[in-house]
Amino acid sequence: MAASFDSLLLKCSCLSHIKQLQAHLLITGQFQFCPSRTTKLLDLCAVSSAGDLSYAASIFRRLLTPSTNDWNAMVRGLAQSPEPTKAISWFKSMCGGPQKVDALSCSFALKACARALARTEAKQIHSRITRSGFGPDVLLQTTLLDVYAKVGDLDCAEKVFDEMGRRDIAAWNALIAGLAQGSRPTEAIALFKRMKEEEGLRPNEVTVLGALSACSQLGALKEGEKIHSYITDEHLDMNTIVCNAVIDMYGKCGFVDKAHSVFDNMKCRKCLVTWNTMIVVFAMHGEASKALELFDQMTKAGVNPDAVSYLGALCACNHAGLVEDGVRLFDSMRDCGLVPNVKHYGSVVDLLGRAGRLKEAYEIINSMPMFPDVVLWQSLLGACKTYGNVEMAELASRKLVEMGSNHCGDFVLLSNVYASYERWDDVGRVREAMRKRDVKKIPGFSYIEVDGVIHKFINGDQNHVEWRQIYAKLDEIKFKMKAYGYVAKTSIVLHDIGEEDKENVLYYHSEKLAVAFGLISTSEGTPIQVIKNLRICGDCHVVIKLISKIYNREIVVRDRARFHRFKQGFCSCGDYW
DNA sequence: TTAGGGTTAG
Question: Which residue stretches, if any, does this entry annotate as coiled coil (predicted)?
């Protein structure tokens, strides 16, 4: 009979099956007197896709004395539901009750904390784990480490890792991925190397994913290539997710063709994310026709585009100025049963704005079914600056202030609109507002990889060992550029300083420092590749175009939004960005 | 009977 109950459980594929089985248990008296069966039923209802959480809760409420396993089933089910905070509440009730809380209860509750980004609760569970004597449990420690990383407390994650008596590969993976996702990619790569070289551990699929993601962020091509050959040697490229990450890495390191060849030569099956990754890579590089071609191909290959595919395709149109194609794509989303989200609206508003169709962009914002976010108003404001639309710029700025924006760039844009009409009183007013509001400036920085070493520069940086040579090179560049009629775009600097100082502020932008360092530290003709955390500034764009011509170098700059490939005085973005 | 680490996005 036990066997038949278990096989019936296995066959439950919907809630009505579960209800039938429950009725059977109730009628035969087993619901009360055979608690292990009831627990199995509850677990199925709470955790599997056949079940239903509110129904599971109703089963739970009928239990006279719920066991630890009954509680665990509920906490586990809620932890993976769209409302993970409920799992934390249930766990708290459990802790207040007579039932023993075991390592599994803690594990499920921690999972919920990770999903709900509940740092305080994670800390509380941590101390409970220590008090209960579960401390040495490696699985629990790894979960703990992972939760700390996911809620953004990397220091605690590292502490858990350091204090682990025994560390298996999952522990290393959790910290490598945590560092990579927590904007500490350099440390992620260092840990990855330490794991291999010092501990002699063999990275697996999950390890390389963390390491590749770190390389993508840093644009660390040399390290990325090494990981790619390791992947091939170890046959980890039979895993689709790994291949997706390799494609992404090459794309973000500036090598579209390499990304495409990995995509074309995959030995394993392509999934939706594979297509999306490749589309996004083409979009980032301004290769709109290839992105759109792939978008069509995926449907033919039997993979239906999702919201990310559409966003990638829209973004491709955006970067290439294909306004009509973009609008058509946006409108066709609903035909596929997809509802545009705020990012799709953001993309199409940006697209129209850049094309100077400000009114349409504004109308779209007004007709959106959801609340427009900061990025949307920033796009519109940027377009207003480009096309000198004071009225709409004021409107967008007002919205941004209402939304609590304290971002320097938002004020600077408005000020620039006024400045272009020589409305100095208004410029002064904006400056005053900035002073009052204590606006924040996100520091700009750039990376460049030379001989496998990553060099980081901050605006006006003098920390690099070769900073004197770098500044001397910039002086030389400046001198040479004068012959091409270069005049610094000082209007984009908003500081209460003289014209010459303004020029200096501009002239030592991190991307210029990185390019200058590239020129002095690599041999003639070698392409230079730089990565910047913010959008490239207008003046740097002009200067780097000239450098590519004067020094006959191909220079690739990845900024926050896309790639710029400078060659012989031209940029692949066609000055449209 | 149920545990830990994973790819794409304005």
Answer: none
Q: What angle do CA A411, A415, A419 make, to 5 degrees?
A: 170
Which DSSP category does A28 fall into?
Answer: T
Neighbouring-strand partners of residue A455:
A448
Single-letter amino acid, residue A330: F
Yes or no: say if A312 and A343 are a contact pair by the CB < 8 Å rule. no
- The C1' atom of B7 and the CA atom of A17 lie apart, in whole Å, by 36
- Strand B-contacting residues in A 232-291, CB cut-off 7 angstroms: 239-242, 244-245, 248, 271-274, 276-277, 280
Which secondary-structure segment (H or E) carries A557?
strand A555-558
Which residues, 6+ apart, have CB-to-CB distance to A408 below 8 Å? A434, A439, A440, A441, A442
User: What's the number of CA atoms in the CB half-sphere (13 Å) around residue A434?
Assistant: 21
Chain B: nucleotides below 7 Å from protein CB are 1-10
What residue has its CA nearest to the C1' of B1? A40
Strands of A555-558's sheet in order across:
A453-458, A445-450, A528-532, A555-558, A563-567, A570-571
Q: pLDDT category, A420, cuts 50, 70, 90?
A: confident
Whole-number Å distance, CA A339 to C1' B4?
A: 35
A73 touches strand B (CB under 7 A): yes
User: Who's near A261: CB < 8 A, 6+ residues apart?
Assistant: none
Token pair listed for A85: 């905070």
Across A259-263, A352-356, A421-425, A547-551, least confident range = A421-425
- List C-alpha distances in Å: A457 to A175, A286, A411, A502, A557: 26, 26, 25, 19, 14
What are chain A's domains? 168-269 (1.25.40), 445-571 (no CATH)
Q: What angle do CA A234, A235, A238 make, to 5 degrees?
A: 150
Q: Specify the DSSP class assigned to residue A536.
A: P
Q: Which of residues 203-222 of A touch strand B (CB under 7 A)?
A: 204-207, 209-210, 213, 216
Residues of A from 312 to 341 whose C-beta is within 7 A of strand B: which are they? 312, 314-315, 318, 341
Cβ atoms < 10 Å from Cβ of A471:
17
Question: What span, in angstroms and rounded, lies between the C-alpha atoms of A351 and A360?
Answer: 10
- The answer to whether A48 and A29 are in contact (CB under 8 A) is no
Nucleotide nearest to A273 (CA to C1'): B8
Q: Give residue-wise pLDDT tens across range A234-293.
A: 999 999 999 999 999 999 999 999 999 999 999 999 999 999 999 999 999 999 999 999
Is the CB of A347 within 7 Å of strand B?
A: yes
Give pTM, 2 decimals. Answer: 0.93
| Whole-number Å distance between alpha carbons of A275 and A281 | 10
Residue A325 CA to residue A283 CA, distance in Å, equals 14
Å separating the CA of residue A395 from the C1' of nucleotide B6: 43
Q: Smallest CA–C1' separation from A377: which nucleotide? A: B10
